[in-house]
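I hope you will forgive my troubling you with a question about protein structure. The record follows directly beneath this note:
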Amino acid sequence: MGELKTILGEQHMSRINDTALVKWIDMPVLAISSERIDYFLNRFQGDSCSFFVGDNITIPFKSADFSIVLGLHHIGQPVDLDLKLKSKFLTRHFDGKVTNANRIAIYEKLIFLARSDDDCDIDDFVRTFILFIFNCIIFPTGNYITPGFIFPYLDDLTIFFKYAWGDAAFRFLYQEICQIGKNLYVDGCTVGLMAWLYETVLVLGVRRGLNVYTRLFCLWKSKIPLNAADTETLLKRIDSTQFCRYIHFVRWRSC
């Protein structure tokens, strides 16, 4: 986001400040290990929607907790993950083709619109900013193409954040986790999953700071070994005193 901040005018920043994603303009580097992600994804129990950690600890994976980590609404109008409607915004900037809206194309469009003072372009800059965050972090995919259901919602910014985007991110990731073994890559916000895990099992991660918001940005680095055997040894030492059972309450107060 460094290049973007240097060219933004007051109007652009003012419009970004009106969105729920304003904090993302200063997003830190969020580095995670695919080996660690794979290890925990394989400990997922689909029937109970939970992760098995240690010898006898099961961590429920809930939409409300995951949404708070992302700083997005859990409650609101539900997002249809299968929505297939035409989008004026998609037509205007990507020739109406979802496949054209890959990560590089979105970023190039973002920089282009950031240099325009036209009111319509500023509106589309906000849409593209949201799209970029969604593409990179909230709804990432293995082919870097944005999921098509997002675009129709971008056409009306006045109600966009009335939708439960945190819950949508949770359901999108849940569907992907349930397909482990069938796909080569797990789409969805796995960086958010690891941040949630580090906050839930307090000994697994190193925090950036206690008062950081969005909570996802607290993710700094992991104490989890890359070696599977060493990871298993670490997890077996975890007991109930190291598991934050009141995570939902703690997070809301911190936010």
Summary: Residues 1-25+83-162 form one domain. The CA atoms of residues 2 and 26 lie 8 Å apart. The first helix runs from residue 2 to 7.
